[in-house]
Specification:
This protein folds into two domains: 120 residues, Urease, subunit C, domain 1; 290 residues, TIM Barrel (Alpha-Beta Barrel). Helices cover 39% and strands 23% of the residues.
Length: 444
């Protein structure tokens, strides 16, 4: 008779970074998985003293860590990657992106763009993403088919667009989508009011009421540029975040994206509300929108997570690159090389992201009982040597290109650098089709 515990998989690695406890790195240990959950981390030499693994994989000189969480993006806009670069935000939006979206965005565009984005994210280490875009049902379907974890926030705007007639129409459609995915193990549906300047007080109050009743997330672009603040004060006599607080929209369910223009009172409002900040450093830098004071926010116990934004303004969806940018920009903005250190940058892309999305009890760290959302990074190459500090190596070098394997809820979705469920050739062919269609029309 044996007291050994049966498990499905033992992943043996040179390093395991659980994120919790902070800065802890285990050497020559194994991560044990049963069904879709993490069972334990134990020294590799002692696995078979306590467990009976159905399968055992020796990853060698690789590091295991939680999958990265991309807390803000517009997945389908991957089909507009490089379409309108090096322009100011207003010009980029009004003269290029919005006209292109008006002409081309439909369910097929969102399906193909979302699938392309999901593949790119998985291959660079992202296991969970948040999306705000038209035809959210198409993105939800793409995530479901790919086996990806996702938060889909349906876009709410007062103006008629390709997906909805007005804010009420968007809310009604979004609530139906939420009902469809209510019991889905990987996909969560929330509200995505686009921005304070595109959504009325009436619609924002309605969203606040529904979100509180349903305990559903809200994600909104907020304080993205100085011009947004100036116009809001001219229109309403108050800064946008004060307006949202007065309308009851700011709660621990709220995810505030960008936040590059903050004063001391704004920070006080954030702290009191329990709302989260989603920092998109590369997009903010590319569009010269401003700088989010991330270290100051963290010092004031405000949760800060990371997002790539859409590939039309980034232009990639590599969360390791975003972590590096967050660390470097955070130091520059704070004027302090100690600000946003490597451990903090990793937390922002893992456990902080899970907290922002309200799923920290499921993912964001490698702890027993949590979902097996895991990535492996190969440190065996020349560019990884010497390796004094795995955390620094993850943040300050091109780690996205070193992601060799990825699991979501225990399912092996990237195997030895290749997609297991998705066809790369098919994805590229669909992207080329859209490129030729859009380019051909632009050339007329």
């Amino acid at each position: 008779m044996t007291n050994k515990i049966p498990v499905d998989l033992s992943l043996d690695a040179s390093w395991i970074l659980p994120v919790i406890p902070r800065e802890r790195v285990y050497s020559d240990c194994s991560l044990l998985i049963k069904d879709d959950c993490i069972v334990a981390i134990v020294p590799s030499g002692k696995v078979e003293e306590q467990y009976i693994p159905r399968s055992r994989v020796d990853l060698g000189a690789q590091l295991l860590m939680p999958g990265l969480i991309n807390c803000h993006g517009h997945a389908a806009m991957t089909l507009l990657r490089g379409y309108a670069d090096d322009l100011p935000l207003e010009t980029w939006l009004n003269e290029h992106i919005w006209p292109a979206e008006s002409q081309w965005v439909d369910e097929a565009f969102v399906r193909d763009g979302s699938r392309l984005a999901i593949a790119e994210m998985m291959l660079s280490g992202t296991t969970c993403f948040s999306d705000m875009y038209y035809f959210p049902e198409a993105c939800a379907t793409a995530a479901h088919e790919a086996g990806m974890r996702a938060q889909i926030v349906f876009p709410v705007l007062d103006a008629t667009n390709n997906w909805s007639k007005d804010a009420d129409d968007a809310i009604n459609k979004g609530l139906k989508l939420r009902d469809k995915y209510r019991s889905h193990p990987l996909i969560k549906i929330g509200f995505g009011p686009h921005a304070p300047y595109t959504v009325s007080d009436t619609a924002l109050q309605k969203i606040a009421t529904y979100a509180e009743e349903l305990q559903a997330p809200i994600q909104i672009h907020l304080h993205e540029t100085a011009d947004e603040i100036e116009r809001a004060i001219g229109r309403t006599g108050m800064r946008p975040i004060q307006r949202l607080q007065d309308l009851g929209l700011l709660t621990p369910l709220t995810q505030c994206v960008h936040m590059t223009q903050l004063d001391a009172n704004d920070i006080d409002i954030l702290q009191l509300s329990g709302a989260h900040v989603i920092h998109c450093p590369q997009s903010n830098m590319k569009l010269a929108s401003g700088n989010c004071p991330t270290q100051t926010l963290l010092d004031n116990t405000i949760n800060v997570a990371l997002g790539t934004d859409g590939a039309a303004s980034n232009n990639d969806l590599d969360m390791f690159a975003e972590s590096q940018s967050a660390a470097l920009l955070g130091k520059m903005v704070a004027g302090n090389p100690l600000a946003i250190d490597a451990a903090t940058a990793i937390e922002m892309s893992t456990i902080n992201g899970a907290r922002a999305l309200g799923i920290e009890d499921q993912v964001g760290s490698l702890e027993p009982g949590k979902q097996a959302d895991i990535i492996a990074i190969d440190f065996s190459g020349v560019s990884s040597a010497p390796l004094y500090n795995p955390l620094s190596q993850l943040v300050y070098t091109a780690s996205g290109s070193r992601v060799s394997n990825l699991w979501v809820a225990g399912e092996h979705l990237v195997q030895d650098y290749a997609l297991a469920r998705m066809n790369s050739t098919e994805l590229k062919n669909h992207a080329l089709k859209w490129q030729n269609t859009i380019q051909g029309h632009d050339g007329e």
